Amino acid sequence: MIRSMSGKGSNVKKAREDLQRIIETCKSVETRGLDPYLVDVDDLIKAIKEYFPNWENVEDLCLDTEALNHIASIVKMQGEWVKNRATALYRDPFLIEEKILRLPLESIVEIFLESWRPIVEFEQLTINGFSEALKYWSELPPLSERWQRVGFTKTDLQTVTHEDVIKEGFLSSESFFENLENLWRELKEAASVKGRVKYWDFIGSDTYEETVKRAYLTSFLITYGYAILKINPLEEEIFILPNEKPSEGKGESISFPISINFEEWMKWKEGRKN
Predict the structure, then answer these.
(1) DSSP character for 142?
(2) C-alpha span between 247 and 227 (Å, rounded)
(3) CA–CA distance from 241 to each of 125, 194, 218, 230 (Å)?
(4) Domain of 239, in residue numbers
(5) Looking at 85, 115, 145, which one is the last position of a domain?
(6) Is residue 182 within 8 Å of residue 220, measured between CB atoms?
(7) Which residue, 107, 13, 23, is CA-closest to 54?
(8) Distance (Å, rounded) from C-alpha 208 to C-alpha 265?
């Protein structure tokens, strides 16, 4: 809404702000393609006419001219809007709805019957279709063959022995439990500040082979009670908490698989660089 202003003693600053708002409003309608009749042109022209006697410098007159130019563009858009509606035989949907509601039921039924074009489908079994169907069923295997169950071979689960791990080069011939003790001391030192350490930060190493070795030994740290695995599902983080001494866990143990593939190792390595 444009503020009214009259007399030489009026606030020129407010008048400039109103002119600027007029320009921005017109620009918004022009650039966004809005309905030009949303702008009350008469109200804008009345405001500009009222402000005009207050302008004393060139800048204010240029601002006044710019506002008039944009209002003229809105008037042009209104004329084009009316012309397009008239050319396209535009009908307001609300007027059409009112007209339909006022029609008697018999007139609506007659209009519907005159404009209704039902789709008719005619189906008939031809000789070719019958021949194709007969061929399909004659070549179809019997139910006894189609419903045969897919066979499978049952195999026993196998485990990797310490000898296999040493043979593959993941562990040395050093005592297995000595390796666990060394890794346990390393875990307690890494978690001395916060009491825990991120799983990948603990097992991660400069080489993929060393990372696999540390992951293998870490699994035994958790199994034998040297450490506890904590999982944060919301942040998708896994932590390891060292125990002061190996605990003798009771109850049913839960297996939680963690993927230690080459892609995960590369992702951790790149994240550490950043």
Answers:
(1) P
(2) 8
(3) 75, 9, 11, 7
(4) 165-273
(5) 115
(6) no
(7) 13
(8) 7
pLDDT at 6: 43
Distance in Å from the first CA to the final CA of the chain: 55
pLDDT above 80 for 254: no
- The reply to whether 104 and 170 lie within a common domain is no
pLDDT digits (tens, 9 = 90+) for 29-71: 888 777 787 788 888 888 888 888 888 888 888 888 888 888 8
153 in a domain, yes or no?
A: no
184-211 pLDDT, tens digit per residue, is 888 888 888 888 888 888 888 888 888 8
Evaluate whether residue 238 is within a structural domain. Answer: yes
Residues 37, 50: Cα–Cα separation, whole Å = 22
Cβ–Cβ < 8 Å for 165, 216: yes
Which of 253, 165, 174, 173 minimizes the C-alpha distance to 215? 165
Token output for 69: 């130019």
Q: Which amino acid is at 42?
A: D
Q: What's the rounded Cα separation, in Å, for the pair 228 and 59?
A: 76
Q: 73 near 30, Cβ under 8 Å?
A: yes
* 131 within some domain: no
Token duo for residue 19: 């002119």
pLDDT tens column, 217-245: 888 888 888 888 887 766 668 888 888 87
- CB–CB of 180/226 below 8 Å? yes
150 C-beta neighbours (distance < 10 Å), count: 4
Structure tokens at 216: 């293998």
Domain end among 81, 115, 149:
115
Q: Domains in the chain: how many in total?
A: 2
The pTM (predicted TM-score) of the whole model is: 0.37
Which among 220, 202, 205, 212 is positioned nearest to 261, based on CA atoms? 212
DSSP assignments along 154-212, one per residue: --------HHHHHHTTSS-SS-HHHHHHHHHHHHHHHTTTTS-EEHHHHH--SSHHHHH
